[in-house]
Amino acid sequence: MVSRRIGREAGGKRKFLAIIDETPECARAATYAAYRAKASGGGAVLLYVIEPGDFQHWLGVEKIMRAEAEEKAHSQLARVAEDLREKVGIEPEVVVREGKTTEEIHRLIEADREIAILVLAAGEASEGPGPLVSSVSGKGAAFPIPVTIVPNTLTDEDIVSLC
């Protein structure tokens, strides 16, 4: 069970959480989250999770790989945040965590009680909509807040008209 959310009546602001990764559809989720945040007077949070399984090497190599992964995460977040600043006019919060993606999403939701909606975007790949979207329909990830799934085919104009 997740802690009670801090709503506007308690002085909080509703935040929309988008997960940033290497998938092309993550930009759709971030765009939707930013426009919804702006329209509702809330905030957007961008989370990049570095999976820990990539660092099973000797200590020196592990440090280098971890530093490269952090640099990649910050670079990706900076690109998406800059795009949202220019396109939407909103300053998103950026968060980098290391761990299993679904566990870190849960931890961030628990830590930031203003996060009220998780925004994911479905991919167009023939294998399915993507691992996070697939996990929502399974029992493994069952997120404790509402989840909005954005079709990858929505344009910025479509998103603006919906928000």
Secondary structure elements and their pairing?
Blueprint: E1 15-20, H1 26-40, E2 43-50, H2 59-88, E3 93-98, H3 101-111, E4 115-122, H4 131-137, E5 147-151, H5 156-162
Parallel strand pairs: 1-2, 1-4, 2-3, 4-5
Mean pLDDT: 85
Shape by Cα distribution = globular
Helix content: 40-55%
The major β-sheet equals: 5 strands, parallel
* Structure class: alpha/beta
Taking pLDDT < 50 over at least 5 consecutive residues as the criterion, the unreliable ranges are none
- How widely separated are the two ends? 29 Å
CATH class reads Alpha Beta
CATH architecture term: 3-Layer(aba) Sandwich
Strand content: 15-25%
CATH topology: Rossmann fold
Overall tally of domains: 1
CATH superfamily heading: HUPs
Can you write the helix and strand succession as a string?
EHEHEHEHEH
Number of helices: 5
Number of strands: 5
Radius of gyration: 16 Å
Strand order of the largest sheet: 3-2-1-4-5
Word description of this protein:
With 163 residues, this protein is α/β, with parallel strands linked by helices. The chain has a single domain, classed as HUPs (Rossmann fold, 3-Layer(aba) Sandwich). It contains five helices and five strands; from the N terminus they run βαβαβαβαβα. The protein has helices at 26-40, 59-88, 101-111, 131-137, 156-162; strands at 15-20, 43-50, 93-98, 115-122, 147-151. It has a five-stranded parallel β-sheet, sandwiched between helices. β1 (15-20), α1 (26-40) and β2 form a beta-alpha-beta unit. The longest helix is centred in the middle third of the chain and has 30 residues, at 59-88. It is globular. The mean pLDDT is 85.
